[in-house]
C-alpha cells in the first residue's frame, strides 16, 4: 500500500539549513507528483512546492529563494532543503503525493531555535 | 496568489446537528476546491475534491457546494468522530493556498 514517511533533524538553529527526507513505498516516484506542505503556528497550512513525475519542480514564491526539492528515484526518496531558517519556520513538515494532496506522511516536527 | 477566506474560525455543535463552513476565494477558482479534515497530531485527510466529489471512504453526511468565488462544506448529523479541524484548499492556480481552518467542537 501507499506509504510516506518523513525524517528530519527535529531541532535546527536559526540561519542553518533544514534537510528532510520523505521515503515512499507502494508506488514509483516517476509516476506521481510529490509535494511538501508545512503547518506552522503563524501561517497554518502552506503549500511549499512539488516535484513532478518527470522531475521538474515548482515552488511557492514565498520560499523560492531558499527552498529546493529533489529526489532519488532509485531510493524512493524525496528531499526538502531550505536554508536561512528563521524561528517562524518552526512547524510540522509533510510530504504528500499527487497534484492534489491525497496521501500524506505522518509529518515531522521541526523546531528552529538556538 | 489566491487568498482563501474561511469562516467561521470555530464552531460548536451538538451531536446530530448540521454545520456549514464557508470559503471565499479572492478570485474565481472554477470549482477547484478541496476540503480536508485534520485531527490533532495527524496529517490532513482529503474528504472532498472539485467542490463536491466525495473521496472513497468519506461518509455521505459530508457535502460540498459552490461556484465562482464562494464555496461551502457541510456536515449533516454531526457525529463524535467528526470533531476535528477542517480546511479548504484551492488548487486551480499555483501556489495552492489553504484556508485558515475551522475547529469543530462539541457543545
Q: Please, could you describe this protein's structure?
A:
The complex is a heterodimer of chains A (114) and B (107). By secondary structure, chain A is mostly beta strands. The mean pLDDT of chain A is 96. In chain A, strand 9 and strand 10 form a beta hairpin. Helix content of chain A is 0%, strand content 52%. In chain B, strands 2, 4, 5, 6, 9, 10 and 11 form a 7-stranded mixed beta sheet that branches. In chain B, strands 1-3-8-7 form a 4-stranded antiparallel beta sheet, with no helix packed on it.
Mean pLDDT score of chain A:
96
* Element-level helix/strand string of chain B: EEEEEEEEEEE
Helix residue percentage of chain A: under 10%
Strand content of chain B: over 45%
Number of helices of chain A: 0
Fold topology:
The complex is a heterodimer of chains A (114) and B (107).
Chain A: E1 3-7, E2 11-12, E3 18-25, E4 34-40, E5 44-51, E6 57-59, E7 67-72, E8 77-82, E9 91-97, E10 103-104, E11 108-112
Chain B: E1 4-7, E2 10-13, E3 19-25, E4 33-38, E5 45-49, E6 53-54, E7 62-67, E8 70-75, E9 85-90, E10 97-98, E11 102-106
Parallel strand pairs in B: 2-11
Antiparallel strand pairs in B: 1-3, 3-8, 4-5, 4-9, 5-6, 7-8, 9-10, 9-11
Short description:
Chain A has 114 residues and is mainly β. Chain A is built from no helices and eleven strands. In chain B, a hairpin with a 3-residue loop joins strand 5 (45-49) and strand 6 (53-54).
Descriptors:
heterodimer; A: 114 residues; mainly beta; seven-stranded mixed β-sheet; four-stranded antiparallel β-sheet; 11 strands; globular; B: 107 residues
Amino acid at each position: 500500500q501507499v506509504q510516506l514517511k518523513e525524517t528530519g533533524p527535529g531541532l535546527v538553529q536559526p540561519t542553518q539549513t533544514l534537510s528532510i527526507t520523505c521515503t515512499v513505498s507502494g508506488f514509483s516516484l516517476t509516476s506521481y507528483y510529490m509535494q511538501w506542505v508545512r503547518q506552522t503556528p503563524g501561517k497554518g497550512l502552506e503549500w511549499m512546492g512539488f516535484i513532478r513525475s518527470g522531475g521538474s519542480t515548482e515552488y511557492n514564491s514565498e520560499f523560492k529563494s531558499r527552498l529546493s526539492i529533489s529526489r532519488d528515484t532509485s531510493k524512493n526518496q524525496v528531499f526538502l532543503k531550505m536554508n536561512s531558517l528563521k524561528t517562524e519556520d518552526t512547524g510540522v513538515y509533510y510530504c504528500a503525493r499527487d497534484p492534489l494532496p491525497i496521501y500524506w506522511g505522518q509529518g515531522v516536527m521541526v523546531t528552529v531555535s538556538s | 496568489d489566491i487568498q482563501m477566506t474561511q469562516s467561521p474560525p470555530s464552531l460548536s455543535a451538538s451531536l446530530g446537528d448540521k454545520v456549514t463552513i464557508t470559503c471565499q476565494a479572492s478570485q474565481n477558482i472554477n470549482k477547484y476546491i478541496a476540503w480536508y479534515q485534520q485531527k490533532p497530531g495527524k496529517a490532513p485527510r482529503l474528504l472532498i475534491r472539485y467542490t463536491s466529489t466525495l473521496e472513497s471512504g468519506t461518509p455521505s453526511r459530508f457535502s460540498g457546494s459552490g461556484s465562482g468565488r464562494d464555496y461551502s462544506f457541510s456536515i449533516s448529523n454531526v457525529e463524535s468522530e467528526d470533531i476535528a479541524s477542517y480546511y479548504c484548499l484551492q488548487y486551480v492556480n499555483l501556489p495552492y493556498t489553504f484556508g485558515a481552518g475551522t475547529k469543530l467542537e462539541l457543545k
